[in-house]
UniProtKB/TrEMBL annotation:
This is 2,3-dihydroxypropane-1-sulfonate exporter. GO terms for molecular function: symporter activity. Residues 472-498 are annotated as: Disordered. Residues 474-486 have a biased composition (Low complexity). The chain crosses the membrane at residues 97-116, 128-151, 172-191, 197-217, 254-278, 290-310, 322-353, 395-414, 426-451. GO terms for biological process: carbohydrate transport; sodium ion transport.
Length: 498
């Protein structure tokens, strides 16, 4: 689908109506981007470890180490990409962020297929291929996905509108996850040779992912860009990279949401990676995974739907904590009570509903951290702020690949063995339920005691930034990065904390 190059940005101060409202076409269009990215990303998180252990014959610990090394690399790739994007002063042909997305999407799809298409070679050769293919895939994924996430602050500056965009994005993410969970293995099972089935299945999802991401780019508009806000001072020097990273360390809410996401996202991804083993070796039900995707992951959508309303009533932070508490209770009971496909689906419905509340708010909260960082330092770094957040997500994904592989190797997992040992069964069950509930507790601690932004505070920050922008445009003077003031600097304006 053709994407028109953006119109030249204006430096005029946006009105409240421009700042606050997006059309539903643009909102939903943005959400389709994460359906597409999840078609490309979830194949690795859901099925690549299983493909490595049962398809290629790699030891589970080796497969887990592939995830560990690749995801740690990805985390640093995110930071490098964020720095690169922030230091690019002029937008590309299609826009500041959309250009990166469009140029990376086809290579990303081809690399996904390469991960599930391993040439005939020795076990050592297959291991090297697995490392190289997944590391390169993650690097290209960083280019597109960091740019995609960085667009929210450029689309709207209203905190509630960002919450809506964040929820719609999470809805798209979970729709992609649901379709991937329900439809992938039935495609694989159409082939007697499962390795060929995996290749065909990922090819189908790769093509669909390209189409959806291109549609997203044609639907959204970048309005509030770095070029526009600095048009009055074209000679302004770039902020040194060391200074930019130092400023991130003084962004307290960013640290809070980053660690909270590290814990909660690792719990979510460990559960996704282990459920394919749980359904096969504990429930002995080949169709349980599809039922789990259809009903349990489907329960994320009600959470995504009510998250903006609930966050408006009790605040984003309290909504985040409430979701983790629901998830904790569901998995605690499930550890003892799940012994059938029906009971797994029932308790997973509650767990996924709980997880849907915090995950639907993450992206909007990171956008709020962008405003906080600019308010404190007068330096605006959308992409670097976003990539620093995704660095923690990549570390959680590394844990999600490494921990199950290491635990399965430790408890004596035997690939494709119908009857596993009691120790293996317990290890799979603990990974499925105990690990997530522990992570929920740590997430609640981070949101309660570290993250310190309410929606009222964010509105005050944006109003103050708008006032600074008017003053800057009037004086046309350069702005020098300032030292980071204390977290108690918020003026007394009646703003309440969540």
């Amino acid at each position: 689908m053709p994407v028109k190059p953006p119109a030249k940005h204006s430096v005029a101060q946006p009105s409240n109506s421009q700042r606050n409202r997006l059309s539903w076409r643009e909102r939903l269009g943005y959400g389709t981007g994460d359906v597409g990215y999840n078609f490309l990303f979830d194949m690795g998180q859901l099925y690549l470890l299983k493909f490595m252990t049962d398809g290629l014959g790699l030891n589970p610990a080796v497969g887990g180490t592939v995830f560990l090394v690749a995801k740690i690399w990805d985390g640093f790739a995110d930071m490098a990409v964020g720095t690169w994007i922030d230091n690019k002063r002029k937008p590309g042909r299609f826009g500041r962020y959309k250009s990166f997305i469009l140029y990376s999407v086809i290579p990303l799809a081809l690399l996904l297929i390469a991960n599930f298409t391993v040439p005939e070679m020795s076990l050592s050769g297959k291991t090297i291929w697995a490392y190289a293919a997944y590391i390169i895939f993650g690097t290209v994924y960083s280019i597109g996905n960091v740019s995609y996430g960085s667009m929210i602050p450029t689309m709207t500056r209203d905190p509630q509108e960002r919450a809506v965009l964040s929820s719609i994005r999470q809805g798209g993410s979970n729709l992609g996850l649901l379709i991937a969970t329900v439809a992938f293995m039935p495609i694989v099972h159409l082939f007697t040779n499962q390795r060929h089935g995996y290749t065909v299945a990922v090819t189908c999802f790769a093509i669909a992912g390209i189409a959806l991401i291109c549609f997203m780019c044609s639907s959204v508009k970048e309005r509030f860009t770095h070029e526009a806000t600095n048009a009055a001072a074209p000679s302004e020097s770039k902020v040194p990279l060391r200074t930019q990273f130092k400023l991130l360390l003084h962004n307290r809410p960013l640290i809070g949401i980053a660690f909270a996401n590290l814990f909660s996202f690792s719990a979510f991804n460990v559960k996704l990676a282990v459920q394919v083993y749980f359904t096969q070796y504990i429930l002995h039900d080949d169709w349980a995974l599809s039922y789990l995707g259809l009903f349990s992951i489907g329960c994320v959508f009600p959470a995504v739907a009510i998250a903006p309303w609930l966050s408006k009533k009790i605040g984003k932070r309290n909504t985040y904590i409430l979701g983790c508490a629901i998830w904790f209770v569901a998995d605690t009971i499930a550890f003892f009570a799940v012994h059938s496909t029906l009971s797994l689906v029932i308790f997973s419905c509650f767990a996924y509903f709980g997880s849907g509340l915090p995950t639907s708010l993450n992206w909007g909260m990171v956008s709020d951290c962008v405003e906080y960082g600019e308010y404190k330092s007068e330096v605006r770094n959308e992409a670097l702020t976003y990539s620093s957040f995704t660095w923690f997500r990549k570390i959680s994904q590394a844990a999600a690949g490494f921990i199950p592989g290491a635990v399965l190797a430790t408890v004596g997992y035997v690939a494709n063995a119908e009857n596993q040992s009691s120790g293996t069964i317990f290890g799979i069950r603990a990974l499925m339920f105990v690990y997530p509930l522990v992570m929920c507790v740590l997430t609640i601690i981070m949101m309660k005691f570290v993250y310190n932004l309410s929606d009222d505070k964010v509105r005050h920050l944006i109003d103050e930034l708008d006032a600074r922008q008017v003053s800057k445009l009037a004086s046309s003077g350069p702005t020098t990065p300032t030292a980071s003031p204390s977290d108690n600097e918020f003026p007394s304006s009646g703003a309440s904390n969540d």
